[in-house]
Input
Amino acid sequence: GQANPAGFEAEAGGAEPMIAGVRVLLVDDHPDVLEVHARLLSERGAEVVTAESGEAALALLREQRFDVLLSDLGMPGMGGYDLIRHVRHELGLSPTDLPAAAVTAYVRATDREAALEAGFQRCLPKAVSPHLLARAVAELSLARQPADVEELDLRVLFVEDNEDLREQIGYLLE
Output
């Protein structure tokens, strides 16, 4: 592979990632970037909501639930670093509640480290390929733990008078 000194996500082949139904909040101050990334994700089945500022993103996060947050870092007003700090601290959304990736033109290793330290789980270059963008959303959404679902022990009571059926179904339920 190619050298990747900044540690940004590298392109990889493989099957198209499954992101159908994943709710994505996409934040960028450039409408053209929002449009392109929203279209790339929507064409793959994601439900995308866009915000043109960190402040607008916070307002949406207070009203709606999202599976993944993708945010630019360098925006006027509240930038991506401040946005993710608000998400993690003021809103109390952990990385398992709302996994997040910085999508940025800042490509130095120090920028990536600062983004991860601020609360993002991934850092993607702004000129990201459609496959890599979809893959990042898929992987982040898999890491998410739904807040309203608790882990339950499943107990089954199965009543059957036929001993053969009882044995077969017992194997299936193990």
In short: The chain is about 40% helix and 15% strand.
